Amino acid sequence: MKLHHKLKTFNIGGVHPDDQKLSAGIAISPLPLPKVVTIPIIQHIGAPAKIIVQRGDMVKTGQIVAIHEGFVSSNIHTSVSGRIGVIEEVMDSSGFKHIAISIRIKGDEWEESIDQTDTLVEEINLEPKEIVSRIMEAGVVGMGGAAFPSHVKLSVPEGKHVDYLLINGVECEPYLTADHRLMLEKPKEIIVGIKILMKALGVTKAIIGIEDNKHNAVELFKELLKNETGITVEALEVQYPQGGEKQLIQALLNREVPSGGLPSDVGVIVHNVGTTFAIYEAVQKNKPLIERVVTVTGKSVKQPSNFLVRIGTPVIDLLIAAGGVPEDTGKIVGGGPMMGKAIADLDVPIAKGTSGILLIPKEESTRAEIYNCVHCGKCIEACPMGLEPYHLLILSKKGNSQRAKEEHILDCIECGSCSFVCPSNRPILDYIRLGKTQIRKPKKA
Amino acid sequence: MSTGLLTVSPSPHVHTELTVPQIMRGVIFAMIPALAFSIYNFGLGSLYVTSLAVIFCVAIEYAIAKYLLNKPASIYNGSAIITGMLLAFNVPSNLPWYIILIGSAVAIGIGKMSFGGLGNNPFNPALVGRVFLLLSFPVAMTSWPIVGATWSLDAVTSATPLGILKEGMRAGENVDALMSKMPSYTDFFFGLQGGSLGEMSAFALLLGLIYMLYRRIITWHIPVSMIFTVAIMTGIFWLINPARYASPLFHVLTGGVMLGAVFMATDYVTSPFTHRGMIIFGVGIGVLTVLIRLFGSYPEGVSFAILIMNAFVPMINKFAKEPRYGVVKEKAKRQ
After folding, report:
1. 3-state secondary structure A11-69
2. Are residues A41 and A84 in the same domain?
């Protein structure tokens, strides 16, 4: 009999959507180069980068094309070699129009300074400050979805003491398997990445949190970390939204980030495994963030896949490589089904934060009939922040920002658990988002 | 390659299977064991009364929605069927049709639709109908057919165990003597006792409870807190004076405690949102039920207790909140 001990998890709220990891067994394969890439100059939280190339310029793969403006911003590099085309506003995966640089591809000539080989480089020669500036130069941002510039996270404010680095390998979004595959195929690189982060932060303890539906990844890391001190791996009970930064901190360390605060307030910094790999490449291989793993999946997709994709590749190229767009497609989501954004057309480029492309069949793509709130309390049960989503909906609908703020609407992490679980199909999160904007931009009289 | 028009909507893009109509269907399934036991015990009268109540409730809700409110018919979510069944569960199985009609009209018309339909009513509609009937037709509402003797629609009537107890105590008898006149606890558990149509069989009601817990339609908080409160309170009185007060087991297995705890108090709309609130609510119902049973003029008090606690639900919701993330640390920081 297998000894069964209770796995850790967060202890407020949570839901259990069907996990549908269709592509978990499919190895990462490089997507053939597209003809044109479109690279938005804002793919991250913060200020857009400033363009330093002109139409007609020839660029090499990995060359910087836009420089960060201010500290909370990120460098943008070209992911291909070729000629700069039009620089204009395009619709990106956020659904908004942003300035983007299009590049017509010629060959695949890389910047000489980038180490393109697969050799594992374990020795970390850079000093902490140099590590952070290298990460900033390489344009690394959080690859779990939020795309927050990584160098900002690594610059812990004066007076705060960080004692734990948490590595987020939870991938709690249904369908997505990009992080899972990366953990299986590049575990040694990820471990070096963790050591780089530990050195940069000056911490001695790191935990990799992985949900137990990726048991093979847990076992693999356990094996590789046998002789390591300081780095451990923890299998977590499968529960959404465990990959939320606050939830992961609660699950692994039983610490709670104060309302309105940051993880560093409780001595923790969290990085996603994808980001950790990108940091390995940036620091050890001098390679900027120009490609990422993207899961292409959906119930009707012919070949659910995990592709290594150059940033800026149009979505349509990924769909063709995965066997085409199924007839019954009703919605295409950039990211997972719980927090991803629906995209309006197939030319939208893959960005640094795009972890997956999910195709949803027509019959599941529209919302069902809405009933009155029946006071079942399931949204409260589900909310990982312990809020009262039904109440926030009412307050937002009435435009009562003051009360909504008192009910801590700004604590909402927009995980969607309330809307997911509502038996009356009420658009709870839609109204909560509205309520949050009402607070941030007060109505003009 | 063209996909036609794509739907664009905010996340989440998936939704749980458990929607309102499915929940209502689940509750109806959960009531079937109790109904089956009732038919077994009281004969076709149970089926007749239940069918009539359901038909009346659905028809009245349809008519009100369509002709008075000019709204699309709201009957398809199944909640009117549940109100009808619960109303029937709370009345004798030999109730005349016109009383059922009046009860249904009050339950749906006043109890539910006057507030705006499903989700807006402060009081449990079936209980509003039931209490209205109890006050308006006290004789018909307290003449229960004898168990097992009735495969015809007009039959001999008997009192409930709680009725026997109350009358006996008033007449100055002691509990042990009264108990000897009543069925055994095993009979109580399986439902071989007089009473309203759906309330007698604790066993059948527990089957329903287990099903609803398994389907995650309800949580344990209300039923458990209510039943425990009744047991503990009556237990204290029983320990003080067993000749004056009946045993906790008697109080849990007779009357409407099980029906109330499983189906009436757990009504989403009229119970609190949070688990903490649900426990306060369940305890409150338990306390009021025992007070009415032991010291009130009615032999049974579950309906009144639930309706009274329904009135406190908005207040409970205001104060009984779940712990929020990040609050402990906030407090620690301020100190």
Report:
1. CCCCECCCCCCCCCCCCEEECCCCCEEEEECCCCCCECCEECCCCCCEECECCEEEECC
2. yes
